[in-house]
Amino acid sequence: MSLVVDRLTKRFGAVLALDGLSFEVPRGQVFGFLGANGAGKTTTMRIALGVLRPDEGSISWDGVRSDDLPRTTWGYLPEERGLYPRMTILDQLVYFAGLYGVPRDVAAREVRDWLARFRVPEFADRRAEELSKGNQQKVQFLAAILHDPDVLLMDEPFTGLDPVNVALLREAFLELRDRGKTIVFSTHQMETAEAMCESVAIVDRGRVVVGGPLRDVKRSTGRRSVVLGIDGDHRFEWLAAVPGARVVRPGMDRSLLELDADVEPGAILAAALGRGLTVTHFEIADASLEQVFIDHVGRPADEDMRLAPALASSAATTDSSAA
Amino acid sequence: MSRRDPVLPNAAIVARQEYGSRVRSRLFHLSTVLLATLAVLVAFVPFFVRVVEGRAVTTIGVVSRDDALAGRSIGILESVLNNAAGGSDKSFVVLREPDEPTAIAMVEAGSLDGLLVANRLPSGQLAFAFHAGEGLGEDRLQQVAVGMFGVAVLDYSANNPLSGFQLPSIDLLRASSPGGGSQPISGAEYAGRRIVGIVFVVLIFITLVIYGMWVAAGVVAEKASRVMELMISAASPRQLVIGKVAGIGAAGVTQMLGILIPAIIAIVIEDPLANAVLGPGPSVALSLAGLSPALVVAFLTWFILGFVLYGLIYAAAGSLVSRAEDLQMLALPLSLIAIVGYLQAVLALTGGTAGFIRFASYMPFWSPFVMLTRLAVGRVEPWEVALSLGLLLAAIGLTFVVAVRVYSAGVLLYGQRPGIRAIARAALRPE
After folding, report:
1. To which H or E segment does residue B232 belong?
2. Same domain as A110, residue A24
3. Are the beta carbons of B13 and A99 separated by less than 8 Å?
4. CATH number for the domain including A99?
5. Strands (E), B266-332
6. Of A196, B89, B310, B403, which one has the fewest beta carbons inside 10 Å?
7. How many domains does chain A fold into?
8. Pair (A120, A23) in one structural domain
9. Would residue A6 count as lying in a domain?
10. Cβ separation of B232 and A51 shorter than 8 Å?
């Protein structure tokens, strides 16, 4: 029993949103659907839900095409968050559950139960407009699961959440997975995907560029990583002398280093010891998912969320070098 | 979208939600109370007029070439009308007018409330013609007729006691009739029917435009708050559109009843109240004589079908914008269609071009206004009713298909202003 996305193609005017996208998610897995904004993640989910029609290809669950599946198969947390601002949380969740055929009393009981587990039982009688964005997001998560769907489609579920709420939501995800639910979530936060997913697909311009079990994907570039701690040094300036090695996630205590495929991890250790440094931690690991993403796609997944280079200073540099 | 979800139960769940959220809102309560108060005040206007004016004098002119006949007519009419009105003051003054055409013009202009033309035919028979001004009630006309009969009896006993009594000929004429000139009127029909026609047309216009905007605003609010994303995954566009139009339509009917019922009660109790407070007097209440059960059924039929047709268009239009501010731009072009229908209905009430009004009464977007008016004030053949209803139903079917397609595409658009081509493409796209 699995979710199969098969050669999905979708065009919006001149834009090719999906270009033969294919992947498969076994039942009961947490699957990371990774890509930058505009990669085709939301379009794929909307096709599964029946909101959009594919130009070609299909999505099926347990061998049944999405067109023939009941709506209750899917639980959807949209990227565009929204609730009825003036309606109480209990009323709107009961309303949404009702559209999926859940009786009012059952839905109300489930809502109160879940709110208690999220440690916010008092939200039931509050209006949505009285809640913070993060708490509204938790409410929307409940709207997606109250009808006990087989497959959860979560579009950027962790975006905008504080660490406490991220932990709560992760816990809920894992509980649902343990109940046999299949969870597909899209994200451009590679660390979250790395922490939760059994398998992933990296998508770019509507195509899967690499996919499969997390470990296989992380090893797909041949790169390796080293987690290194040096007593009294967190700048690692000496690393410039080791070609093909760089710090990708600096830390005061330990830092993550990425190595090109032809660089042996032992060379890093030898270089540190050779300079008389005291090594407090040395661990050989696979490449980070973020690095794998950059290697396959050519840019970071959240590139559009990062600062652009400062044009004025770069222009000044160019001028001075020209002089 | 190829998944075919059954319309029920989700459309009913959406309708119940839409209905409940509207009728529970403070704005709904406030506007209903305000409009109901206004309607009751309007219904009581004749009562207030009577209170303010007290015993206003109604002037009736008499024209006759025969001095004796004129004198008798004045005496009898003053006595009959003032006795019927009760009280000691004179409410009705009857005066002799020298010239018939001038006096008729005075009735038309409103400076005379009525004019009796009394003549003796060569055969000796008396011929009366009574020109009634618009302000003269039906009950007064009956008293005038009785008075004219009395004049004939008095005239017979004074002039011609040896030959047989001849009944006078009596014509009752209304100053401003639908045809423009004075024509014999039939009972209380016309005035009452016209009032009912006006009320119905105004009600339908308000319903379609205001409650139609509620539908569009509801769709826009769901898009603006982004809750639409949850809705379209939980229910099909077909279920959402039907539920929204039905729920908001029902809320509109509730408000309409909340306004109409107090107004009708006010009309019914107005005369007894006026008589109790101000003493016996002529009827002041608006006539409900034109409000036949068949007309009420016709009103409900065209109201429901008209609202469905307009509601579908408003739902589709609402899906094309993302912010409440943008909705204002759609409001005028959308209401223009209804305004054209409304104007034609007003024309029909005042006797406009018959051919075009007949055509408009078959056209789906206008028939809820125009056919209803025709049914209220004129004669309509059964085949015309069938044609008008058939075309309206066909238009609803076609509009429904197009509206659901536009809605399906529109609700996914955020921040983009869809062009005509995009809308047309969505409308033609198979579901």
Report:
1. helix B228-234
2. yes
3. yes
4. 3.40.50.300
5. none
6. B89
7. 2
8. yes
9. yes
10. yes
Task: Say if A271 is an interface residue toward chain B (CB within 8 Å).
Answer: no
Structure tokens at B240: 């959402």
Q: Which residue has the tokens 């016709």?
A: B298
CB proximity under 8 Å: A 120-179 to B: 140, 143
Question: Is residue A217 in a domain?
Answer: no
Q: Closest Cα partner for B130 from B111, B112, B109, B155?
A: B112
Burial of A274 (0-12, 13-18, 19+ CB in 10 A): exposed
Verify cis geometry, omega within 30 degrees of 0, for the bond prior to B9.
Answer: yes
Using a 10 angstrom Cβ sphere, with 0-12 exposed, 13-18 middle and 19 or more buried, the burial of residue A266 is exposed
Q: CB distance from B17 to chain A under 8 Å?
A: yes
Show residues of chain B in contact with A80, CB under 8 Å: 226, 229, 414
Local structure of residue A68 (DSSP, 8 states): G
CA distance B274 to B284: 8
| Distances in whole angstroms, Cα of residue B269 to Cα of each of B47, B285, B316 | 11, 8, 44
Within 8 A of A101 by CB-CB distance, chain B residues are 9
Kindly report the CATH number assigned to the domain that includes residue A267. Answer: 3.30.70.100
Question: Is the CB of residue A67 less than 8 Å away from at least one CB of chain B?
Answer: yes
- Is A98–B227 a contact, with Cβ atoms under 8 angstroms apart? no
Q: How far apart are CA A308 and CA B336, in angstroms?
A: 49
Q: Do A99 and B227 touch (CB under 8 A)?
A: no
pTM: 0.72
CA separation for the pair A88, A133 (Å, rounded): 15
Bridge partners (DSSP) of residue B116 are B62, B130
CB-defined contacts A:B, below 8 A = 69
Does one domain contain both A13 and A92?
Answer: yes
Judge if A249 and A276 occupy the same domain: yes
In b/e form, how buried is each residue of B181-202, taking b as 16+ CB within 10 angstroms? ebeebeebebbbbbbbbbbbbe
A88 DSSP assignment = B
Identity of the residue in A51, A83, A96 whose CB atom sits nearest the CB atom of B412? A51
Measure the CA–CA gap between A264 and A268, rounded to whole angstroms.
8
Predicted complex ipTM? 0.75
A282 touches chain B (CB under 8 A): no
CB contact under 8 A, B14 and A81: no
Does a structural domain hold residue A322?
Answer: no
Nearest CA in chain A to B13: A99
User: Comparing B280 with A197, which gets the higher pLDDT?
Assistant: A197
CB contact under 8 A, A51 and B13: no
Q: What angle do CA B35, B41, B42 make, to 5 degrees?
A: 90
The three-state secondary structure class of B365 is coil
Q: Range of A260's domain? A: 224-286
- Are the beta carbons of A76 and B233 separated by less than 8 Å? yes
In a domain, A60, yes or no: yes
Q: Which residues of B touch A82 (CB under 8 A)?
A: 222, 225-230
Query: Chain B contact for A51, CB < 8 A?
Result: yes
One digit per residue, pLDDT tens: chain B, 431 residues?
A: 445 678 788 899 999 999 998 999 888 999 899 988 988 887 787 777 767 655 557 788 999 988 888 888 888 888 877 776 555 556 788 888 988 889 988 888 778 888 999 888 887 788 888 888 766 766 677 778 888 888 888 887 777 656 666 777 777 776 553 333 444 444 445 656 677 777 778 888 887 888 888 899 888 888 888 888 888 888 888 899 999 999 998 998 899 889 888 888 888 887 788 777 776 666 666 656 556 777 778 888 888 899 999 999 999 888 888 777 788 877 788 888 888 888 877 777 765 556 777 888 888 988 888 888 888 776 788 888 999 999 999 999 999 998 888 888 887 776 566 667 667 776 666 54
